C-alpha cells in the first residue's frame, strides 16, 4: 500500500481533496515508454516480460487446429459408421421382404 493510502482522511475538505489527488497521482506510473522503445536503453521484449511470442502463439494455434481436425474426423467417422449400419439394416429388411 502506498504512503498516500496510509494517511488518514482529513476533516478539512481542501486537505481531503489534496489527499485524494495525491492518491490518484501515486497510482499513475511515471513516464518511461521512451526508454523501453527498440532504440531505448532498456528495451522490452515479449520474453523479458513473460508475454507470449508470435512463434509460441503459432504453435498453440497449430495445435488447436490439429486437435479440432482430429476431433471432427472422429465425429464424422462415427456418424458415417452409424449411417452405414442403418443402410445395412434397411437392405437386410428389403431383402427379407423380397424373399417373403
For the termini, the CA-CA separation is 90 Å
Overall domain count: 2
Helicity level: 55-70%
Largest sheet: number of strands, sense, barrel closure:
none
Q: Overall pLDDT, averaged? A: 81
**Strand residues, percent:** under 5%
The number of strands is 0
What is the helix/strand order?
HHHH
The whole-angstrom Rg is 34 Å
- Quickly count the helices: 4
State the low-pLDDT regions, or none: none
Helix-strand makeup class = mainly alpha
Task: Assign an overall shape.
Answer: elongated
Describe the structure.
- The protein is an all-alpha fold and 100 residues long.
- The protein has 2 domains: 1-32; 53-100.
- The protein has 4 helices and no strands.
- It has helices at residues 3-6, 13-26, 33-36, 54-99.
- It is elongated.
List keywords for this structure.
100 residues, mainly alpha, 2 domains, 4 helices, 68% helix
The gist of it:
With 100 residues, this protein is an all-alpha fold. It has two domains: 1-32; 53-100.
Topology, element by element:
Elements: H1 3-6, H2 13-26, H3 33-36, H4 54-99
Amino acid at each position: 500500500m502506498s504512503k498516500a493510502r496510509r494517511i488518514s482522511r482529513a476533516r478539512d475538505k481542501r486537505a481531503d481533496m489534496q489527499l485524494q489527488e495525491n492518491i490518484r497521482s501515486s497510482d499513475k506510473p511515471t513516464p518511461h515508454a521512451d526508454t523501453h522503445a527498440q532504440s531505448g536503453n532498456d528495451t522490452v521484449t515479449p520474453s523479458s516480460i513473460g508475454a507470449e511470442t508470435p512463434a509460441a502463439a503459432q504453435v498453440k494455434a497449430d495445435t488447436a487446429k490439429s486437435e479440432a481436425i482430429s476431433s471432427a474426423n472422429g465425429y464424422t467417422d462415427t456418424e458415417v459408421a452409424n449411417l452405414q449400419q442403418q443402410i445395412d439394416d434397411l437392405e437386410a429388411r428389403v431383402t427379407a421382404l423380397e424373399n417373403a
